[in-house]
């Protein structure tokens, strides 16, 4: 179903791997998700078991003031998943808030790591700096431990992430080692990075991280008019004053989108070479980017409409996937409780 019209880099998964990925339901998924993880999930879903976590509890760490947004975004994410080709029969869809074992695991893991180590996490530091006072709550600050609980609860061995997220997986591996010292048998997860030459993290139209919250991303269901507006806002090379000026293709955001999604690789290479020499305008680059994105998003948008008609079926898949995953999480929690000397007593 899903086709970028160009090879999708399959992540370095091993036989027997159990994969965990997921998204926070704070709004529609966008092209940054597609370039960063969705395409790889679609390509890898037949290779080994995938658990895809709809992380609504984590979304509340910076959206507790807008719980309706988080609640309503869950259906949209299910529709987006189906539209890009994720098959609920092949992957386990799990709603985080319906697996209470994760929260108890997170509470226990917090006893094995210092607050200083969590706050030194570069992702946390960057997010806190970006969000400022809106994110200065304890739930947000300690979410690396919560993310580690997600990974360990479902006994994941492989976690596909961008390289900037490596410290998160390193923390989860450290906590798995700490549990092993106490007698708990939990697989040590590893980060799995995009293949060389993959698009990686796609910037937003303004050059910052593509974000639903920042409003600088192109949604998977964007209309042609919304795509055109977003491309017009894409930052260009500020050093250029005319089309005759030599330019740096690494500066315009439009080139980042072309590198991620343009199926005509030779044509793109020729355009970049001409841009370096001078002789092509930023408007020309944006026109090509608009066409490429429109051709990519159009079919996905149509499939979103069809997936919306199947929403009850997708909700059932989420419910069933969550129930199945809870069994795994319960077994993991029992093992972790034991290493802390906790047993289940009748209340």
TrEMBL record:
Enzyme Commission code: 6.1.1.2
Reactions catalysed according to its record: tRNA(Trp) + L-tryptophan + ATP = L-tryptophyl-tRNA(Trp) + AMP + diphosphate + H(+)
Pfam families per UniProt: tRNA-synt_1b
Enzymatic class: ligase
GO molecular function, one term: tryptophan-tRNA ligase activity
Domain of life: Bacteria
GO cellular component terms, semicolon-separated: cytosol
Keywords of the record: Aminoacyl-tRNA synthetase, ATP-binding, Ligase, Nucleotide-binding, Protein biosynthesis
SUPFAM superfamilies (alphabetical): Nucleotidylyl transferase
Gene Ontology terms describing biological process: tryptophanyl-tRNA aminoacylation
Entry similarity comment: Belongs to the class-I aminoacyl-tRNA synthetase family.
Protein name: Tryptophan--tRNA ligase
Source organism: Methylorubrum extorquens DSM 13060
């Amino acid at each position: 179903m899903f086709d970028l019209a160009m090879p999708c880099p399959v992540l370095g998964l091993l036989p027997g791997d159990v994969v965990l990925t997921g998204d926070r339901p704070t709004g529609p998924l966008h092209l940054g998700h597609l370039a960063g993880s969705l395409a790889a999930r679609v390509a890898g879903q037949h290779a080994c078991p995938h658990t895809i976590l709809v992380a609504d509890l984590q979304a509340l760490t910076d959206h507790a003031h807008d719980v309706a947004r988080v609640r309503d975004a869950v259906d949209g994410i299910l529709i987006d998943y189906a539209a890009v080709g994720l098959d609920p029969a092949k992957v386990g869809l799990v709603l985080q808030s319906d697996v209470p074992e994760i929260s108890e695991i997170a509470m226990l893991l917090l006893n094995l790591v210092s607050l200083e180590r969590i706050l030194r996490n570069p992702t946390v530091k960057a997010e806190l700096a970006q969000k400022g006072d809106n994110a200065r709550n304890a739930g947000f600050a300690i979410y690396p431990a919560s993310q580690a609980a997600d990974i360990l609860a479902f006994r994941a061995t492989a976690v596909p992430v961008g390289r900037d997220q490596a410290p998160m997986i390193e923390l989860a591996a450290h906590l798995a080692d700490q549990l092993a010292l106490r007698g708990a048998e939990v697989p040590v997860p590893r980060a799995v990075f995009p293949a060389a030459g993959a698009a990686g993290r796609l910037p937003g139209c303004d050059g910052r991280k593509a974000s639903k919250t920042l409003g600088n991303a192109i949604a998977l269901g964007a209309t042609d008019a919304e795509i055109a507006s977003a491309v017009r806002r894409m930052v260009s090379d500020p050093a250029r004053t005319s089309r005759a000026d030599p330019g740096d293709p690494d500066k315009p955001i439009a080139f980042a989108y072309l590198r991620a999604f343009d199926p005509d690789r030779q044509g793109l290479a020729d355009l970049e070479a001409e841009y370096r020499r001078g002789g092509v305008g930023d408007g020309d680059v944006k026109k090509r980017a608009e066409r490429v994105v429109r051709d990519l998003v159009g079919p996905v948008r149509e499939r979103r409409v069809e997936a919306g008609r199947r929403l009850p079926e997708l909700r059932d898949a989420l419910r069933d996937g969550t129930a199945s995953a809870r069994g795994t999480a319960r077994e993991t929690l029992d093992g972790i409780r034991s290493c802390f000397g906790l047993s289940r007593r009748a209340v």
